[in-house]
# Entry
Amino acid sequence: NAGVMQNPRHLVRRRGQEARLRCSPMKGHSHVYWYRQLPEEGLKFMVYLQKENIIDESGMPKERFSAEFPKEGPSILRIQQVVRGDSAAYFCASSQGGQNTEAFFGQGTRLTVV
Amino acid sequence: TQLLEQSPQFLSIQEGENLTVYCNSSSVFSSLQWYRQEPGEGPVLLVTVVTGGEVKKLKRLTFQFGDARKDSSLHITAAQPGDTGLYLCAGERGNEKLTFGTGTRLTIIP
# Structure
């Protein structure tokens, strides 16, 4: 019973390139959350998705960032024209949804912009 | 403004000592979860509390949810070096979105 799978674990991009981060939720989970964590800090909510729908994107920067969770395949967090300030660990969590649901995290993708 | 404040932010104690960390908010949560995160890894769920006043034990860890469901505490008895990590609380307000606290970075000195 695989847990939440994120890939790649480490990603290096030059300024101006695009970064694509993938997240496969746990089996049976239809809800996905993305969080960003800067070094020595807690997790900041970015976006909450259900299959084919964005439920809450209040934590997403207005420009360059987008997320999707298609009917088939993993959830994708896409960052266009990356800048040095985008360097962080990006974590995905999944849940079954519903009230008092429990979320389980992947190991994260560490993005470094050079 | 931070919805969930955790204190202390940093804590360093000797092995064998007891400690308590706190998670406070002015908002009511329908549930609250505690996670531990080790360097280079994702957060791992420790416990979920749902009912006001609820107490849950996980070996040497005791979790309590405040009566008004606005705050929570985590008490560790006889701390071990393996308890070292970042402890995060996260609350859910009935909208299925988990909001995380600022975290307490705990170091247990052998």
In short: Chain B has no helices and eleven strands. Chain B touches chain A at residues 6, 30-31, 33, 35, 41-45, 48, 50, 86, 88, 90, 92, 94-103, 105 (CB under 8 Å). The two ends of chain B are 37 Å apart (CA to CA). The CA atoms of residues 53 and 66 of chain B lie 5 Å apart.
